Amino acid sequence: MNTLLKKTKKGVVALTSLLCLGVSQTICAQTNLAGGSIAKWEDNKSCAVALTFDDWTSGHPAIVVPALKSRGINATFNVVTSMVYDWSSLKSAVADGNELGNHTSTHNSMSISSCQTEVIDAKNLIEMNTGASVTTLAYPYGTYDDNVINFLKSNRFVGARGVYGISNFTYRFAGSDDDYYKLCTVGMDNSVSLEMFKSYIEKTIAGGGMIDYLYHSIYSESVPDASYAQIHQTNFEAQLDALVSYKDKVWITTFSNLIKYHREANSAVLQEIQPQQDGSWIINLVDGLSDNDLYNYPLSVSVYVADSEITSVTQNGKSLAFSISNDSILFKAVPDAGYITIKGVFSGAQEGGQGEDPQVSDKLIGKTAMEITSLIRVGWNLGNSLDANGSSGLSAETSWVGCSKFDSKSCSKNKVV
Ligand SMILES: [Zn+2]
After folding, report:
1. How far apart are the C-alpha atoms of 251 and 247, rounded to whole Å?
2. Strand 159-161 relative to strand 186-187: parallel, antiparallel, unpaired?
3. If pLDDT is split at 50, 70 and 90, which confidence band does 43 have?
4. How far is CA 142 from CA 291, 331, 352, in A?
5. Which of 43, 288, 322, 341 gives 373 a disulfide partner, CB atoms 3.0 to 4.6 angstroms apart?
6. Beta 36-38 vs 299-304: how paired, if at all?
7. How far is the CA of 104 from the centre of ligand 1 (A)?
8. Distance from residue 417's CA to the centre of ligand 1 (Å)
9. Are 147 and 112 in contact (CB under 8 A)?
């Protein structure tokens, strides 16, 4: 067991031991996987970056979509449905893997009285015309209140972005569920130099958090785009090239993927269902989120296997790609999507404690989502403060609160629309 613990990331051990406080020792001994960890970001990258483009102006289909595609990256386009003149170009952006976010029907300031028409009608129209799934929202002019946030939550939006910056640099950028609906941004225009653009990325790598860049008009001599905050194509593409040069450390993804991953990983645990025996080992990946149709983004998982010979990894019968690195097996699995079976020739039995009876661990699996969530929340605080105080060298209190016009203590005032 000592060997396993040494190989295990500090945060995971802490999470495991804290979870034990909430359940009986018998269940605890077998359900938490000491030799496993869940990456904070996909592929164990240091941080995440999302590029978001608002209002679907002329430069977006003409310049941005091809520039992203040629670099093999994706972004989020926030759509105002009354301003859409060509659904086919949006459909094509979706086919490339880009996300379409909701930027309302008419781009008026948000209020609960108009949410049905501004949010739901826009979402339905985008989904009907493009086949995309709309799960995030960009508030027009950054306007929202608690009623709007509650509306978004009950209508299965995973998060929303304001127009204030700059924060989110550390991993603990969302201390509460509401913070995912108050996310900060870096407003881009010609005043942001390439050096500044890069410095934000480096700060985010150091803090382990995420950054969202907010773009509007991207123009060239042949593509006039003068809606707001114009950036010339040459400068924009230089920023994309700079971003891609950090790809080993930065997960470049859509706003929705980024939020889903963070929410899932923050509340997820690995449990051992059946110790290594008879050539197979069964583990489970669960998170504290009850909407499994929405929170279904695969998490990057690492499980210590020493020098065992692994032949296959499956989840609920479906084959998963895997690789071996530093005596661990790496794969991606969706939380709450069924048991994960690792097959192979194992080098020595793993210590299973009293955990040989899968029926006992099923007692925890069978708990309601609410019960599992409350257990996980016990572990959440320590796991994250260790992260913030450990590798990043930043204090747990460093700018982790999401921000808004009502709560801008960690934000500067560079308001954009
Ligand atoms: Zn806008």
Report:
1. 7
2. unpaired
3. very high
4. 27, 38, 52
5. 288
6. antiparallel
7. 9
8. 5
9. yes
Ligand 1 centroid – CA 79 distance (Å): 8
Ligand 1 center to residue 160 CA distance, Å? 13
Tell me, in angstroms, the distance from the centre of ligand 1 to residue 59's CA: 15
- 140 CA to middle of ligand 1, Å? 5
Distance 323 CA to ligand 1 centre (A): 43
Structure tokens at 214: 């907010």
Q: Classify burial at 288, counting beta carbons within 10 Å of its beta carbon; exposed 0-12, middle 13-18, buried 19 or more.
A: buried
Distance, in Å, from the CA atom of 157 to the CA atom of 260, rounded to the nearest integer, reads 10
State the average pLDDT for the chain. Answer: 81
Residue 389 to residues 8, 171, 238, 381, 396, Cα–Cα distance (Å): 18, 11, 34, 12, 6
Q: How far is CA 376 from CA 129, 184, 268, 380, 409, in A?
A: 39, 26, 7, 6, 28
Residue 104 neighbours by CB under 8 Å, 6+ apart: 80, 81, 110, 118, 119, 122, 137, 140
* Least confident stretch, 103-112, 306-315, 354-363: 354-363
Write down how long the chain is: 417
> From ligand 1's centre to the CA of 118, what distance in Å?
13
* First-to-final CA distance of the chain: 55
Q: Are the CB atoms for 320 and 340 separated by under 8 Å?
A: yes
Q: What is the pLDDT of residue 348?
A: 64
Domain borders along the chain are: 2-44+265-386, 47-262
Q: Which CATH number fits domain 47-262: 2.40.50.1070, 3.20.20.370, 3.90.580.10, 3.40.50.11540?
A: 3.20.20.370
CA–centroid distance, 127 to ligand 1, in Å, is: 19
